[in-house]
């Protein structure tokens, strides 16, 4: 289950567990999470977006450019402002096949097999073998 801080937005994910979990140390995730890193659970877009009709009025979306020049759609609760989902758009404007759900909004998310990415700007120690940049799927 995914839920924002105030509870105005909640929904189920399409798989019993994410494809992968990322602990991202990039500066954007640090700003967005107001912490040393952001946690994202990766899921397929299909079945997740568009959101259910009853949720759409409660969810806002803004876009920003990524370091790679792609566009990132950032979905958030209009009431409490909590970021819920990120979806990347390819240079031609089509959707990436994956999206990320912000880890703090997910119940029972395990970080046991999480991978650390964008570690060049890490503020905390990270495991050896972590990605200094993005993994292949981004």
Automatic annotation (TrEMBL):
Any one GO MF annotation of this record: carbon-sulfur lyase activity
Organism classification: Eukaryota, Fungi, Dikarya, Ascomycota, Pezizomycotina
Domain of life per record: Eukaryota
SUPFAM superfamilies membership: Mss4-like
Keyword Zinc recorded: yes
Keywords associated with the record: Lyase, Metal-binding, Zinc
InterPro entries, A to Z: CENP-V/GFA, Mss4-like_sf
The CENP-V/GFA domain, residue ranges: 1-119
Family matches, as Gene3D superfamilies: glutathione-dependent formaldehyde- activating enzyme (gfa) (3.90.1590.10)
Family per similarity comment: Belongs to the Gfa family.
Name of the protein described by the UniProt record: CENP-V/GFA domain-containing protein
Disulfide bond keyword on record: no
């Amino acid at each position: 289950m995914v839920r924002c801080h105030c509870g105005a937005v909640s929904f189920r994910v399409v798989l019993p567990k994410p494809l992968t979990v990322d602990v991202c140390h990039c500066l954007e995730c640090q700003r967005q999470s107001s912490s040393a890193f952001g946690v994202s659970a990766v899921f397929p877009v299909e079945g997740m977006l568009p959101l259910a009709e009853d949720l759409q009025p409660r969810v806002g979306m803004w876009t920003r450019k990524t370091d790679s020049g792609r566009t990132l759609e950032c979905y958030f609760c209009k009431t409490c402002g909590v970021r819920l989902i990120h979806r990347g758009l390819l240079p031609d404007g089509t959707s990436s096949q994956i999206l990320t759900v912000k880890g703090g909004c997910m119940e029972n998310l395990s970080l046991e097999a999480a991978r650390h990415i964008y570690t060049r700007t890490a503020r905390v120690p990270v495991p050896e073998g972590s990605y200094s940049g993005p993994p292949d799927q981004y």
